[in-house]
Fold these 4 entries.
Entry 1:
Amino acid sequence: MAHRHTLSELARASSGGLVSVKQAAKVWAITSHDAAVRLGRLSRAGWLARAQRGLYLVLPLEHSADAEPVVDDAWLLAQKLFAPCYIGGWTAAQHWGLTEQLFRSTFVVTAAGRRSQREVKLSTEFHLVRVGAARLKGTTTIWRGAERVAVSDRERTIADALVHPSWVGGVRHLVEILGAYRDSKDFDPRKLCKRVDELGVGAAQKRLGYLMESLWPEEEAIIAHTLARRSAGTIQLDPSLESRGRMVKRWGLWVSGTIRREAA
């Protein structure tokens, strides 16, 4: 019964079942050291699952010892594990309804010092990309339960992908996402150009301008905007391809194959 009461207290103080040493110390009105010791004991007894040092998942009372612990909300877990960070890439694109492509891992952009690009915590897979702290600016926040989590908005998600197409699974998926955005009620050419400008990367201007001119030539404002801001030098439209393909001098792009939007 004592464990049930203790776990109930932790569960009420948790966010999506996740509780830190600091939160536990506050709930129990004890020092952080004593709270860490008590949490460790509860974890070894099978009442909690350890996500990382100082962070635990409160397991349901009916949880089987043979079952893998699973967190309810991967976004909340990401925020606690990899802060400072934001949810971006393909996960943000899925959230905003810009792609139907399914990805196993949750995409996290972090300024924390992580060595691995892939981590699995509490049966949840994360794909991590490390950036400088300045790159975390310009995101938005949304409510996930009782907490706010940082996520790239529609335009920032596309801008990030224009810099790094791999963040959404490659250029083909970038085209899909760009097309879904353009066809949506949320399409805002000025905001899209602003987000690309904020990143200050000429390669993003080149890719956006070329794709718009190739697929949606009627978007003259975007094309003119990006043409005026494209950087010098040449890059590949799709950095994942070994073959450089043909040179499009107007945009300073090596393009391999034919770029087209798949029929809806």
Entry 2:
Amino acid sequence: MIMSAKIEYAGKAVLELALRQREQGSVRIATIAKSQNIPKGFLLQLMIRLKNAGIVKSARGKAGGYSLAKDPSFITLADIVRAVDEALLARPEYKKGRRDPADKVLQEVWKSAHEELERQLETVTLEDLKTKMTGGQMTYSI
């Protein structure tokens, strides 16, 4: 499965904020962009979406920048995906009306795969990822 650049960059940016949360407070766009190798203009667009979704907040001024809007243990990967690329977790649409047996079988498989992906993304929080990055253990199965 190929992740969109929006999802990959948004995940990296929010994880960067989670890792810097206690030591730094607000983090400037330029700092996140440089640290995570994300184009600054693209990152700004993503941060606006994340802010509108209530995942990050911004502060103006000399000490301004972005920080998490809530505790990392309450932000899931599904929240991030929905904020920047809602199509990935949108419910699959199926043909209505008469369907042949192959359509029915394939639709069941796609529905099941979609539900499993959504379940997995709902169970992994930023706190889990932060713990894993700082040397703790995180286990989950796909």
Entry 3:
Amino acid sequence: MLNQIWKNKKQILEGLKNSVFKNEIVESIATSRQEICRDCALYDIIGIGCLVKGTQPCCNKRLGGCGCSLSIKQRSLSSDCPFYYWKAVITEEEENSL
């Protein structure tokens, strides 16, 4: 679990920053991604498949998802859905320059 969090730390921090410091463009993208996630079979509102307890809704790891908190991941513009339902809109290099 810690390995996965450490590997994705830049994207997690980006999503956290964008959750705190709201931006109209980011919120629009997050809303669009949220609509897609809600229709997915891996959408876990209860939290039994979350990588970190208490971060639901998440992508249910028990059913093959990534386990990420969706409220953070959906706001990380350099993140994409592991099942290709939505893609990153910036690269990690672009994210690093922000």
Entry 4:
Amino acid sequence: MDELWYPSQHYSTTRGPYNKIVFHTTEGAMTIESLGSWFANPSAQCSSHHGADQYKRTLGAYVYENYKAWTQGNANPYCLSLEMCAYASWSRDTWLSKPVLLDNAAEWCRYMVDKYSVPWTLLSSTQAQNPDVRGICQHVNFGSWGSGHSDCGSGFPMDVVIDKAKNWGGGGGSAPAPQAIGDNVVSGANDPDGVTHYACLSESGQVLYFPPGWANWGAIDPGQNGALSGAGISISSDWWVEITYTNGSKKPCKYRKKWLQGSWAWSGIGDVNAR
């Protein structure tokens, strides 16, 4: 994701969890540069993490993601925000005539989903106004909790943006598969949101995992090694991730955990004393 940095002084250095990906409209600024100038104005008292316009395949960056931007009232601590250089009054046809803007919004959304493992769930207003519910929404969904704004408007083609985002970089809601380790085979499985998680063995036979948002393979259990084959992966409809392999004693084994909850638990399918 290419971005140009236009720092804003309007932010807080503490924030809550990355629970919501939020789309906004600027209602005035029509370029990422003019939006940056406004966010840099001492009288503005507002900001957003990123901005997108119709004129270039580059995003404006205004506030570091690990800081709290000031753009959706009481919801600020939980949000990652994109200001689209647009108006909430636009019709769907007008939005669809801005393909660069929609591509920018989609790429930003995909980047945030992958980086912070935010689910693809489109939030209702009730869900959006619950700080603990994770997903994607528009500013309007926050109601008075988010300062009572109406953006992005009834014409905003959220369906188009989300479809583009899910298919960004490879299709089917999945980024390109990570490179295998040595001669070992990469296995993949889609989670309930359609995003692919991967499993593989290291050259020493460690079970490795590559979920959404990670930059590289990671060992599930640093003390485990010597696996002969695998690793296979499956993800249930209730988000249990299971990774299977054959250990050095030729016994089938399994690790499992619930996505984003708890720690990996190991069980030996064929021999509970061997891993």
